[in-house]
Amino acid sequence: MTDYGHELRFGTFITPQARQADDVVALAQLSEAVGLDLVTFQDHPYQSNFLDTWTLLSFVAARTERVKLAGNVLNLPLRPPAVLARAAASLDLLSHGRFELGLGSGAFWEGIEAMGGTKLTPGEAVEALEEAIEIIREIWDAGAPGGVRVDGKHHKAVGARRGPLPQHRIDIWLGAYKPRMLRLVGRKADGWLPSMSYIKEPTIAESNAIIDEAAEKAGRSPREIRRLLNLLGSRLTDAEDARLLAEQVAALTLEHGFSTFILPADAPELIETFGKEVAPRVREKVASGRVAAGTSTGAVRSAAALTLRAPGIDYDHVPPALAEVAIEPSDHAYPQHRSTYIHRGQPGLVLRPRNAAEVAEAVTFAAAQQVPMAVRSGGHGISGRATNDGGIVIDVGQLNSVELLDPVTARFRVGPGARWGEVAAALAPHGLGMSSGDYGDVGVGGLATAGGIGWISRQHGLTIDHVVAAEVVLADGRQLRADAENNSDLFWALRGAGGNFGVVTALELEAYPVSNVVFAQITYDLNDAELVIPRWAETVIAAPRALTSFLTMVPARSGNPAFGQAMIVINDPDPSVAEPMLQPFLDVGPVLGSRAYVMPYSGLIQSHFSGHDGVDGLVSHSGLLTTVTPEIARGMSDILKAKATDMMQLRAVGGAVNDVAPDATAYAHRHQNFCLNAGGSGSTAKRLESLWPALEAHLDGLYLNFETGTERSHLERAFPGKTLERLRVLKAEYDPKGLFNSNFPIPPAKAVAAAE
């Protein structure tokens, strides 16, 4: 007796009759309605009276919501594997993870040849199927380097591009009956999908034994392979028929390990009885039988997956609520969660808490491990420190709600995992907004605890200047609320140095009226950068506070001159108000082009997030300044001339930012007018590293969100004078062991004293 302990699933096998197309779709919909898990269709492209199976699968996916779909089985000789892989991934994405891939090596060769396929011997067909599986899985491995290269006898891939990544890990089920095919199931497949009427020699028990032996030889557990079965056509005319079928199906699970049962069903009454009467009885019988037998159930990780686990993490004791959604290096979703915008990480475990209590569990668990810990909200930070190699990442991306609490005071509550584009979209219907960087995909948590230099900062200040309360999980797992009356010292620290003191689980901010804005772009020739850059800076300082501008500079490339693009936002929708503000910018330097629009502020900060792939080797440096002195202008010009940056940018601050007292928040830079950052990778980064120190000597302070360097001096520039002293005292109180040490760590006061 063999029971592999898989979750039970039930489905239908519907004939794709072309003359009854609407009925076929209706049967699929009925399968879903009665609670079945799977709908399948045979695939015989040479049958002119059948619908094309792939077209049918796609159509049914659009007409259903929950049920999984598969070919039973798809005819590989007429469906090239690389194309099939992309089609499968696409359908899985469009159906939100509801596609599984049933494959057959080919049969009815006369029909296949008639359609242009090549007739293969049984041995050749198995070879071709194994090559196809390799190509398909390589195409799906979107995060692997290079193209797909498989030099098979029957199927080849010569540098085919990878991707897209399917929504979930698509299972590959093989229809197999003979020993050679069964051994392939054991080595390579996720499931065995025979039809009951075709299993003769070897028998079910013998077939399972062949699969299990092949799996073990390949270093796999037999439990990795699901056993599916197309049942014989059944009469289900009364309760006794349903009872007998349930008995037979339960026995097939408890004695032979089958866990997915697919009923040939072209009649509604069969589907109704199978879903409403047979399936529940089987679940009940199997559940009691497994308890009596002590059968292990649930998912199993392969030996290969276990080898990818990082040392120093107690994977077996991840809190159950977190384990449900945790991601390990072997998991399908790992490529989507390993990296940030900048850094391609290799964490050993990504925890994805869904509420504050789970964040506390995650912090407590991570604190007990012997590996680094990082915290991620949106993952867009330039520093790249929201991931790591071999450690734990606490990803708060699922804490992403946005709620307007009080329309009168414009107070809203937001989760740290929300993106600022989502915030802008939620506030826009109320005529409200929040200055929050320049890009809608930036996460709330990282920006709203560090600063927040945005499109209307000169009029309304930094993002942190509008935070009125924060909920935070501390290093010891405690959950606190911090505001002006409660834990006010922590509230002070969170606004500017938040990453050092805990994991923020919610923020309350007060927005302000923002509707349509004027957005202008003016492009300057920067051949004479030493002259143009200071003029732009002087023009910004002289402008009304309703105007904020960023100047993005790019060195000469491909015969094109160095240029700078001034992006200007005026928080007023009236062009007649905006025009006199914009006019002085047209006199800053040689203009290569200009344009202006009236647009919703929420349209300027849209979120289009589709994941982070990360890059390696990016260097970014930052500094603050009050005016662009001749020395600073010369240093910036030298960087452009040497092509020592991919992009350099000046962001306007000043105005309302400087209305706040330097000691009111942990962000103490309240007299400067600009933030400068420059970045590059590869040889460009090396040139930047050689030229930056000369420019840095003339800068005044540092905005850490744009800095990749880790020198201790950065802390003193980011948190000048008494600010750093106060932060060290608070660090000793709230995080004395330095758990939160991945984001420009502040040493606790006691540790500094001991070191000195």
Task: Give unreliable regions as ranges.
Answer: none
Which structural class best describes the helix and strand composition?
alpha/beta
The total count of helices amounts to 25
Main β-sheet, in a few words? 8 strands, parallel, barrel
Task: Please give the alpha-carbon distance between the first and last residues.
Answer: 70 Å
CA-based shape? elongated
Domain unit count: 3
CATH homologous superfamily descriptor of the largest domain: Luciferase-like domain
Arrangement of strands in the largest sheet:
1-2-3-5-8-9-10-11
Annotated CATH topology of the largest domain: TIM Barrel
Kindly state the percentage of residues in helix.
Answer: 25-40%
In the CATH hierarchy, the architecture of the largest domain is Alpha-Beta Barrel
Strand-residue proportion: 15-25%
CATH class descriptor of the largest domain: Alpha Beta
Q: What is the β-strand count?
A: 28
Protein traits:
756 residues, alpha/beta, TIM Barrel, Uridine Diphospho-n-acetylenolpyruvylglucosamine Reductase, domain 2, Vanillyl-alcohol Oxidase, Chain A, domain 3, 3 domains, seven-stranded antiparallel sheet, 19% strand, elongated, FAD, Oxid_FAD_bind_N
